[in-house]
Every structure is written in structure tokens, then in C-alpha cells.
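Checklist before submission:
- one chain only
- standard amino acids only
- sequence pasted in full

Submission:
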Amino acid sequence: MSSIADRLRGIVRPGGSGGSQKQDPPYGVEEKDPAEGSRRGRPGPVDPAGGSADAAEILDGEWKQAGTHRFLVVERTYAPGHRHGAISVADSLPPDEGWSRLALLAGTPCGGNLLFVDLETTGLAGGAGSYAFLVGCGWFNRGRFHVRQFLLSSFASERALLEAVRDVAGTVDTVVTYNGKSFDLPLIETRYALNRLTTPFADMPHVDMLHHARRLWHGHDEGHRLSSLELSLLGHEREGDVPGFEIPARYFHYVRTGDAAPLDAVFEHNRRDLLSLAL
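Returned file contents:
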């Protein structure tokens, strides 16, 4: 049975050139130590151009303008000594020769330039009515782990956000997710199709760590939640983490009011997921 994204591609003619040209990985990011935390402040009035006037300050990010629409980009860089439980970034760096057995996990030949992807969405059911309002991307470079998060400030800015994600994905060889085969990638590919854009993930090797976790650690948490595995395998216990069922409501609150303060915990939740996935 074809996926909804495949069916939509047969109806909607993709626009554009089909993606960005190959370029060096997006390593030129402003390094912000996560230990410093985000700058806090009271939410400002709603900005008709797209979100809260204070969202960039509250979430410690930067607005990116695309025509009359804009979206927010938040960057974090984790140094080699940053610890996530008992494991540091330095402990998980790719070997110089690359991950030679990565193809066994992907089920197909793949390169060692990995992009870790995790989505926060407006619903768990998937389908054309669900949006990826926060797209988290992570990658290793020069002994550090970099995270770039894209926030959908308004539904009208989705196309511009997807194009920015496509630029990042165009620099890597393999995508790594947790439950991405069943949820993340089908959802975001549907969003690309609905926006008449070519998805950058269609022909990319994909490692979904959920399936391998079930085989390797079948004696652990029955649902194999990422937060449970990070506690048992990495020794990292989340404190003050936002429950998953609250995440869509926090985003809808932001859309209605422009108040970005409740999203700060959502961004941190997404960063922790990316760190656990990578380490």
C-alpha cells in the first residue's frame, strides 16, 4: 500500500529544482553553551508578522525571514566534555574511518555523514492534518555535537521552514531517527508533498534506532521509550522534562497568544532526544 506522501506526489506536481546542491555541512554556527541556559523574559505582544516579538530572546534563537513569512532557528553546540549521564560527547564521536557497520543498521550502503532528526508535532495520529512545528537536527563535527532547531512560527511559513531543513539535509549521507520509519519521516514527507517540494529524505539511507533497540535491549522498558533507554543505558535521568502529551497544547498556546515561554521546555526536550539518539 502506498503512503499518503506517495499518493500526494501523484496528484501534486513538485516545484523547485528538487533540493539544494551538495555543499559542505552547515558547521558555521554560533556556539552557545547549553549550560548557560536560554535567556528568559516576559513574552511580548503578538507580532502579526509571525509570532511573539520576544520569541527569539526567550528561546535564544534568531528569526529567519523568507518574503513576508519568517521562522525561528535555535542553535546549540555541545563541547566534547559535555556529559549526558555517564556518556560524554567525546565518547560518541565517529571514528576517523567512519562507522563501517552502519550499512548493517540501515540495510543499504550508506555514508558516515549522519544527520540525527527528531520532530515535535501538533498530533500523534499523523496524516495531512499534522504539522511538524519543531524540526530538530543534530550532527557531529570537529569533536562537537551541533543542534539546529527550526520553529514554525505560523502555518504560513511552513514552506520556508521546509526549504531550510532541506538545505541542511542536502549536506549529509544518512538520516538517523527513533521511530522515524513509522512516524517522523512519513509525516515530514507529507508536509513536503503538500507544499509542492521534493523531500530530501526520499532516497537517503535511514537508520531507525527504535527497531535495533527492541532487538538489542528487549529486556528493558517494554515500550522502548527513548527516555527510559537513556536512563538505563546512559545513566541520564531527566528532571523537569515536559510530558509528551503536553507538547502540542504548548505550541497551540504560542500560536494563539504569541507567548513563547512554555516552548522553552519543549526545545530542551527535543535537544535531549537528539543527544540520547546520537550518544
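Reviewer check: The first strand starts at residue 46 and ends at 47.
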